[in-house]
Automatic annotation (TrEMBL):
Gene3D superfamilies: 3.40.50.2300, LytTr DNA-binding domain. This is Response regulator. The lineage of its organism: Bacteria, Pseudomonadati, Bacteroidota, Chitinophagia, Chitinophagales. Residues 3-116 form the Response regulatory domain. Keywords: Phosphoprotein. InterPro entries: CheY-like_superfamily, LytR-like, LytTR_DNA-bd_dom, Sig_transdc_resp-reg_receiver. The modification 4-aspartylphosphate is found at D55. SMART domains: LytTR (SM00850), REC (SM00448). SUPFAM superfamilies: CheY-like. It comes from Limnovirga soli.
Length: 253
């Protein structure tokens, strides 16, 4: 049995989530609820829970303000938010789970099942540490992304990614030094996540690191030649955008 705390400033949302956990998550017991960042910190220190359901935006601060009070959190986190908060991107980078309100029972069960698996292998706290490290880094320091694989978590610096290719419902990360990592998410998931970091989807099957493009071949409509030697076709619809992005990348480098 695992213990949990709910930190959420809306009473109705707190009680609803507490009831849903009781009905759908039989291995988890909610031992306390908190209506503010300060109450959440005190509740965690008192009860030492395994899991915290943490609202991103509360009236007295953010869920990240709460997390910053703990240097090495011994608990795992499932974030909750009423909208697609700007911080969701940081959360996705770190492979930490989140739930959009109104919370769906099936998604809640899926998130808590993943928490239990992570807890058994101590991966949840590693993902949370990755999130905290990314939040603490200055803007100019390259971000890292946490990839959840069948073997565990991989922490990858963005500059080490050469390109990502689609493989059915999976994505294969092609890294420097000929390393490959397969993850069970499709390219669409990473397209929106990486577009602000000099990555571009040039084809239905490929996302590339623009900093790792060595040249463009004009044959058959166009290919991007990557630093690892891969020649990746550029969709005709993406050609103009690719040239524009490459010009901007070269100017900033």
């Amino acid at each position: 049995m695992y213990t949990a705390i709910i930190a959420e400033d809306e009473m109705h949302s707190r009680e609803l989530l507490k009831n849903m956990v009781a009905i759908y998550c039989k291995d988890i017991t909610v031992v306390a609820t908190a209506g503010s960042v300060e109450e959440g910190v005190l509740a965690i220190k008192e009860h030492k829970p395994d899991l915290v359901f943490l609202d991103i935006e509360m009236q007295t601060g953010t869920g990240f303000d709460l997390l910053q009070q703990f240097n090495n959190p011994a608990f795992d986190v499932i974030f909750t938010t009423a909208y697609d908060h700007y911080a969701v991107k940081a959360i996705k980078f770190s492979a930490v789970d989140y739930l959009l309100k109104p919370i769906d029972a099936e998604e809640l069960k899926e998130a808590t099942d993943k928490f239990i698996l992570k807890r058994k292998s101590n991966l949840g706290s590693q993902a949370l540490q990755s999130l905290l490290q990314n939040l603490r880094k200055p803007a100019q320091v390259p971000q890292s992304i946490t990839l959840s694989t069948s073997d565990g978590l991989e922490f990858i610096a963005l500059p080490d990614i050469v390109h990502i290719e689609a493989n059915g419902p999976y994505s294969i990360f092609n890294l420097k030094h000929d390393k490959k990592i397969m993850v069970s998410k499709n390219l669409k998931e990473y397209e929106g996540l990486l577009c602000d970091f000099h990555f571009m989807r040039i084809h239905n099957s490929h996302i590339i690191n623009l900093n790792e493009v060595k040249k463009m071949l004009k044959t058959d409509g166009g290919y991007a030649v990557m630093s690892n030697g891969a020649q990746l076709i550029i969709s005709p619809k993406k050609k103009d955008e690719f040239l524009k992005q490459m010009a901007a990348t070269n100017l900033s480098s």
